[in-house]
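yo

u said u wanted the structure for the complex thing, so here. seqs first:
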Amino acid sequence: MIPTFLVVSFIVFFIIQLPPSNWIERHIENLALEQGTFTSERHLQLAHELTERYNLDRPYLLQYGSWILNFLRGDMGESFEYGQEVSVLLAKRIPYSIMISLLSLFFVYSIGIPIGIYCALNQNKISDTIATIAGFIGLSIPNFFLALILMVFGLYVLDLPVGGLFSPEYEDAPWSFGKFIDFLQHVWVAVVVIGTAGTAGIIRVVRGNLLDVLGEPYITALRAKGLPEKMVTIKHAVRISINPVITGLGMWLPSLISGETIVSIVMNIPTAGPLLFGALQSEDIYLSGSILMVLCLFLLIGNLLADIALAWFDPRIRYD
Amino acid sequence: MTDKLLQIRDLEIRFKRDEKTVYAVNGIDFDLCRGEVLGIVGESGCGKSVTGYSILGLVSGLGGRVTSGSIRYYREDEVVDLASLDAKSDAIRRIRGNELGMIFQEPMRSLSPVYTVGEQIGESVRLHLGLNRKEARERAIELLRQVQIADPEQRVDAYPHQLSGGMRQRVMIGIALSCNPKLLIADEPTTSLDGTIEGQILQLLRDLRNELHMSILFISHDLGVIAEMANRVMVMYLGRIMETTDVKSLFADPLHPYTRALLRTNPSLAPEPKSTLTVIPGSVPEATEEIAGCPFASRCDAVMAKCSLKRPLPFEPKKNHIVECWLYE
Amino acid sequence: MTENQEQGRTIGQLIWRRFRKNKLGVVGGLVVALLFFITVIAPFLATMDIVEQSARHILAPPQKIYFQSEEGEWRRPYVYNLIKHRDPDTLRLMYTEDRSQQFPIRFFVKGLEYRILWLISGRTHLLGVDEGCRWNLLGTDPLGRDLYSRILMGSQVSLSVPLVGVSLSILIGTVIGVISGYLGGRVDHYIQRTIEIMMSFPTLPLWLALAAAIPITLPSAYRYLLIVVILSLIDWGGLARVVRGKVLQYRGEDYVLAARMSGCGLFRIIFKHLVPGTLSHLIVCATLSVPGMILAESALSFLGIGITPPLTSWGMLLKDAHKLEVLVYHHWIMIPGFLIIVAVLSFNFLGDGLRDAADPYS
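structre next:
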């Protein structure tokens, strides 16, 4: 884990430093626009402060080192665009990103797994073929396009509120059941869009695995014990075939996060996505860098959790 | 209450594979009596395993169908035709694992990998005998002891992959015996085990049979194992029974040309010891066509014109020694 | 493909036979072939210049094609010019037909000059109308540009980016995979770890970061190349793994040992023996990578950090659809989106069919 984290963070640091520009100058100019022109003294002083804070006159590796250490301590730098501490900005948005991602995950598993099981048990019947093709189509629709279509549908057909996370009345209210429903009404499009591709993938994986398992000798042996067919399928076959689905979680997390990013940009939902996009375009380095780091951290933690879940599920792995 | 446990008549079983029909079993008759060990011996593809599966109605789960014939099972006070029962029905489910048990060839691939050994044994007894969890666990420990596994109190919580091949086979025997069945169908139970382990398992089966007075249908391609275990033997080839007799007679006085050829290929069992290893000429044909006459005609060294035209009737040239061969008309 | 022969058939022929049975795969393959054909002859099919704007025709709907005259006689198909109004109440754009003149649709019309595949130049276009009429087969965009022609030219970018990108991925992936598999040991270990790390990155944020790092002022063509490079850089991991697996497998094979013992050099072994065996898997992997690249390029262009004008791509054409009112009242804007779906779907079917045909036991 640790070496991965170091490599990843270094790559992120490298990437955000790529745009060839002198952002100190630009930042000071921006400030000057807001606060009125600076004297050349003030200009120098600001430049000096920024250089101090971010170690810009030190070697590259040292910059990286201090950035990472600060990051881990919670000091993620300052956003030039917003004039706030990055950590404050992220604290407002990241929780919603997580919530939407978790809802999408829930969507994918609760729809994908039952359909996958159904398809395996009804192999090659019409319903299986339809589900397979529907799955393929789901994989092939660009996220942003589906988001647009669903937004139009939601707005003009279902007359649901669109845009933002909450309706005005719930905006600052404390969490309650009503607020949660309002939240769902606003984000369902995002959840469905993000979940669609993942659902299609899971259906195929579950179907394939279950079919493989159903061909194994122990299924016949279980029937020979006199177990009812449903018990053989659900208690045993599904349980055994579910393992790759859990590992698959680790592989699917990246696209979950990617999906959440682009959908929230398209739909203008105030989560990490639009913030990152805006930061990249305005070269707000520490904001964009921190968001990238946080996203990567999610991935690493998610993978770890998936590994733990797998060990819990599959006794064969536990005792290795 | 008769001595008969199973009576099989005119059994035919077919499979569908890649749009072709496989004629696995083509009209066999035999009886199995209480307390006897009946061996079925033959090469791969002769239909012996399929016969075993069909008794428990497991053929449809593998893509096959019993197309005709009857499998009469003589219970205490009634006779049930197992072939007529729907494979998913409660009727056959109650018999499987309860009154008729089965053990399989590869123990690792026949035990569910995600549940402990104790849970898997317990599953049977809870289902058929209605025991609760605690009682089931105790019964599981008792069974593990009966199949001669050391430290049953520890082993009961082990997973199959933590046990050796021999131990897994013992577990499978334990599962099959958990409800005191009248018949144990053993499909190549020692084929995938090492020599010494094989011997131990066979001894275990003999001991258990004596203790529990149950019948065993022992299916194997290994003549030596059959010689050790069975009272009576049936030799199968391409879905038909070539010869049926008691084990001593089969080895001392084999009548069917196929049996003779089979014995010759195993030097230690041949009635007349020879110096060179013999092979049966030709190879086992695909079972994808119906054969008109005797299935062994194409490779038989005593073949006559009649053999390819008409299927031989079962003749009984000696008492309790049945051969399907025109030589004995 | 000479090592294994089964009943006189080569592996290629066996794979082709199995593939033919997969109906979806065959359909996918046909559609892909059709798309490529259209892309190549796109300038021939286009009707108008793609950058020509017209304030009098912004967001115009596709014109209705008439097959009968107003009296009910059958005629060759024709269209009317469109005149723009604004509805006084809703301030929405409306277009009515100018019935004063009928413009029949003509085939093989002379129009703008173009070049196909840098070789064939010409001035003949498949369809067109006479002077004085603006015929927008699929309507126009918010700047009055012909959507049909832009879609056709956009297909050249949308379909070439994944091709070039995948080729690049194959190149990088093969080289690294071979190095990793052949050298083994620590080199292999580190390379594999790197690939693992790379494959666990959230791809879109990375693309965003890299694409946004390209200076806006860079000419369109260079930007195209950089986008292709970015997409393939992040994608070669899977290919490298497959190649490495095969190399490891073949390393122990007897014929490789035999080749080495008879004095074959390293490269000869790789190219003559290992590569042909891996070829089918490479092709499958490549075909399955294409959908991801099409979707990636569309997403980046949609957000404005992908392809820039004067080049155009389907994703970029969808940028105009981002405003919901535009989308609802001028739905022809969405057509590029459906084309993306068709292209991606076809590649998915094709790749899936190829994979099942090449390795039915995987």
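Chain B has eleven helices and twelve strands. Chains B and C do not touch (no CB pair under 8 Å).
cya
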